[in-house]
Amino acid sequence: MFDKILIANRGEIACRVMKTAKKMGIKTVAIYSDADKNALHVEMADEAVHIGPSPANQSYIVIDKVMDAIRQTGAQAVHPGYGFLSENSKFAEALAAEGVAFVGPPTGAIEAMGDKITSKKLAQEAGVSTVPGYMGLIEDADEAVKISNEIGYPVMIKASAGGGGKGMRIAWSDEEAREGFQSSKNEAASSFGDDRIFIEKFVTQPRHIEIQVLCDSHGNGIYLNERECSIQRRNQKVIEEAPSPFLDEATRKAMGEQAVALAKAVDYSSAGTVEFIVDGDRNFYFLEMNTRLQVEHPVTEMITGIDLVEQMIRIADGEPLTITQDDVKINGWAMESRLYAEDPYRNFLPSIGRLSKYRPPAEIVTKTNMVRNDTGVFEGGEISMYYDPMIAKLCTWGPDRATAIENMRNALDAFEVEGIGHNLPFLSAVYDHPKFVSGNMTTAFIEEEYPDGFQGATLPYEELERIAAAAAAMYRVTEIRRARISGRMDNHERMVGTDWVVQIGEYDFPLTIEADKNGSTVLINDKKHRCESSWVPGQTLALIDMEHGTLTLKVGKIPGGFRIRNRGADLKVFVRTPRAAELSKHMIEKLPPDTSKMLLCPMPGLIVKVDVEEGDEVQEGQALCTVEAMKMENILRAERKGVVSKINAGAGDSLAVDEVIMEFE
User: In what order do the strands lie in the sheet with 27-33?
Assistant: First the structure.
């Protein structure tokens, strides 16, 4: 077995690989850029080597720099993680030339299956059902439009070397095909150094289901069941689960056997994933093969008990698989939520900055609950604009799907993140959505259920009533503390009342509270709510034991009450005396400034180009400018007809969120 492994990656996946390597008694080497000099993966490693400036194309994907780090440290093997060089055959060849093991598949398999065009041709030759499309290289936007018309809209424009949703666009018209082709080429060149593009038919209402395979160099291959990855936004997975709530045993077996046969056709060894789209009748079509470890691999590990990273390392060392297909079982259900540094209230645009608070829920293992958090960040760390916005993967397990979902709801409620925009509220809302709970979702779920973006979850009245009772109990604790302050004047003892009104949005909850040494009993609408908790003022997480279980609340202080976040809802909760509540109805609401005649930069980013000039008349939907952030290009369009009166930024300018790009008459 290897003595030392270099992890040619960063963030949570680098930390994940290190955990298994250390468990196996293998020393680890980290590489890092300027932006990552204080990163968690650098701290976790036994050794660390600086490899260059912050942009990935000047550090993490420069093969020569990674090879230099290998030579400096004497690493015997390299685990590439995912992204960066993980599917780069030239990197695998460079390692082989140095006599260093690549913890991944052979070069031939990477070239055959890592390239989407080649892999589709091979799949067709092997008799695998594939999606209709044009597999040749496309030279320019005019040819892209021509091919799109021949295939028939809608079409998917994809980067041949792509992954992670980058270099991918859906086009429904000639104009979108033209724009999508250019943006996909730009993103592909920036992220992968390869701007080749192909086009295929976009299958509407599909489910995205993938099969995990594991093959060794001795001809053995197995599949480790499937993962459901249909909850996606902009072709990027958000929530994954294993197994799929849609597949039956016969379809699972057919997909698994086909995936293994495809892997064996290219002499595959290591872990890999064969992705399929599946229609409503359980017909499945080969989409692509990822010749690396997938982001969502933890859910497979949780239902099978197999450490995929360990298996990859053992296979790279030449060991045969000791697991047979009969050994692979499905034990319970697992969920994964990707925590992204993006603002769901701003159409999920990237967010950067310092993590002023980062406190994930405790990792636990019981007979009915398992919580796992794969992360590469820490409280006080910086979220950089140079890399992927994913900062953690929160995973839960349960003996069945309903329990796994409930465990995830509670874990999300207990996850505290401050300082940046993040998608925790959105994730919570999805897990409460009836369509998700039923398991009846497609890859269009987010687009269909949140067509106008995410504006926060709306909790049912019964849940708001429980929160009102909890808020009253917490407020009473704060009032008691104030009443007991030292240094009071004689005969000025402060009395804490029993009658209050809790105001949450449009709802008023008049209540009476009675306290004892163990907690409070709150009477609302002739219904008693018992609240018991060890919460004290200043704590940002409150666990309130109530009827129907524990209520987990993220708590912040505001004048006259609390900011409370629960199940995707962000609430201002005011606790007032009956008279103060009556008078509050007459308070004038402060309105935000009018920015309707301005184009604001929706996230920190770089202006790639400006498509209009001062004095131009623009139409609704017309492209105004393109902003790049975290390697993704975002085209900003006019919301309505107007005339450009002033342009404040140009190509090459780096802007902060809400900076004014242009103004309109």
Answer: 47-52, 27-33, 4-7, 77-79, 101-102
